[in-house]
Amino acid sequence: MKFTLKSAGLSVLAGAYLVSAFLVFRHVERDAGPDRVTIRISQWQLESGVREAINAVIRRYEQINPHVHVVQIAVPGGPIYYSWVLTQMAGGTGPDLAEYNWTSPDIARYFQPISADVMAPNPYNRGTPLEGVPWRDTFIDGMTSPDSFIDVLHEYYSVPMDTHLSRIVYNRPLLKTITGRDEPPRTYREMLAVCDQVRAYAKAHRLNLVPMANSHDTKDLLAWVMVVEMTGRLSERIDFQHRLKIFPQDIGQTYLRGDWNYDTPEVAAALQELKEYGAMCTPGFWELERDTAVTEFANERAVMIVAPSWEATNLLALCPFGIAAFPFPYPDQTDPVYGRYARGPFSEGQLTTGLPVYVNRSTKHRAEAMDFLHFMTSQEGSAIFTQVSNWPPATVGVKPSAFASQFKLQSEGYCWFGNYIYPTPDYDSYMFIATHMPALWGANGSVEEFQKLLRAEVGSHIREDFRHDVVSGLDNLLREDTAAAARVELGPPARRPEVLPLVTITNETAIYQTRAAIAMSLPGTSPYRADGTATSSGRPEAGVRPASAGNAATAPAKTGDPDLAAGWQALAGYRAKDALEIFDRKLGAADPAAAREARFGHGIALLAKQPVSPAQIEEARRIFAELADGGDDCAPGARFFLGRIAQHHQDTPDPAEAARQYRQLVAEHPDSIWAQTALSRLAILEIYALDLQSPPETRIGEAEKLLQDARTPTAESELHVALANAIFFYRLPAVDALPHLLAAERLGRLDWAARTEVLVQIAELSRLAGDRPQAARFYRTFLKENPIDLRRYIVKERLAAVEK
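The chain above was modelled as a monomer; its predicted structure follows.
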């Protein structure tokens, strides 16, 4: 390699990193005695005070638990950190606990869910007001941030250490010099006036001084809240699922369906406010790095700075003058320009927690790792962390440090969560809009020019993001198909769940609804169709055996063979290559049952061994076709996977074939876990993929007939949820979904996240249907079960109205 200054610098960096890593591990070996368990926690937060805060927590923990030694590994963030973590995990030397991010790869492969743990109390909160409270509810956000509860995996995976919130930090002496007071503006009009005063002062004194420093990294921290505030009434109008909040997927879908655009009055008002916000900031701020904005503020070339809470300790250390922080004074109902759109009191939205810590799937010290997480997030541990770091705490009831207390969320009020400037959370539309923000914020920019650009092109970028969502959703679905089957095979037959723990029915439905939203937004497409091709009805062929008591019971595939159990264990742990090798060794087993089970496992592992090729899928299909006509438990499992291959795994889906396999499965093995799981997937096909020339109500009616085949509460619940979602998606009378939601709630099989949404939906639809007592009952249930959810303000308002 040619020697350059750049390569030399990289070599020095790599060398320094290797030396530091060596010292860390040498330190571990030196400090860990024969009677001490050592666990390691890695993180990337190199801001001033954070490492010291974690070390302070560790010292106190080790005082209480002298048999455990905890080592902190601080690694620079960004690509360096993620490469390091993934390399360590792949090599089997990963830390027991690691800060990670829900958008990063291989979470299910390298980290373990902690859903059961978060439902139990944190033992370190004994003697505090949080004693006996589920761990989940001891966090300020109720563990609703996307890192804590990963929606696509439908599991809790991490616990947070701090909260994220943005404020305006200001130079108190400089503000007083310019305005005669060191108190911040309290209203939006006062904020505009202060900015005018700063500009006039800079001009009079010939200073390079601007009202507010900002950067590419921080520009959105306040901007999205401005948009949410201005568009609350619009969000309420397009809340077609009646959840009292708008999700990013809803924003993009309703745009494609024509429910709003960038000329809609509320959105236009938000754009005008954003234009004024941009004028407060350093010219060209959207292209500046964060360090540049901090330097401008520290050198007194800006009176204020947009500052996230994690910048607190850095600013305290860097600034030689007194600083304080205040919330941006968003316009309220009294504002002469924006008052007609504002609705107060206004909530700043969902609090975002940060520094999420995940548990290594392969840790040998899970008990100790979980115990340390309990202490770190207890009231005592969290108090130590915030006092040393000056970062706002994530644990309920913990008093923040004096500076961090200025970053307290305003949670009481209206907030519908929708950010219409970025209509999806994905890359393509975000980059398109971010790249064109100069059309709004530039010296010659205007709201009209920005609207023109968005009007012309943003739809195609939303569609591209949604196509990416479909691909990502399918990748996750395919991975969970095989892992779910393995987890079921590992369990005792008598304790099998009622359905396979696949990707949730809501997430699988979202794949079809996203495809349909894309198709419906294209010219010349039927409003009913999800694609442009006709399909057969998928009705059962003649000769399919009807359901009967004689064929419902099947012998379990379990043979008790430890090698086969090891194969299922590998597959459940996302190690398909290892599983395939194990199953291959048992294909010639003398016991026919063991040989069939090995063949079944071999077929499933083929669907997961990366990279999955069409040849692998075809081989798996042939294996399942051979096994499907047998008399043991492999037969319905094989039939189920024949349906899944046709539905999702093969390059070109064949919904008619998938439906045929599912119907035959339900007819032949109606009570099996495989058939009961297939029912809701067959319902999805009926609604979104078969006979698409028929109107939605007809397709939903066909899917409703499957309720008669549901033999377990979970299967029935999944069907009711799928039917309700379809009614909302196709904009049929919303109250038609109410019986399905009531049935799903009554069956008691909804997990916590799904139940939370269903409670709100039942209450809202009951109110709209005029059933005030039922609405009140479900509003009260929601409030009781969700003490932290930020919809509580609206729910309490609705409850008061129906109880009048």
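The radius of gyration is 29 Å.
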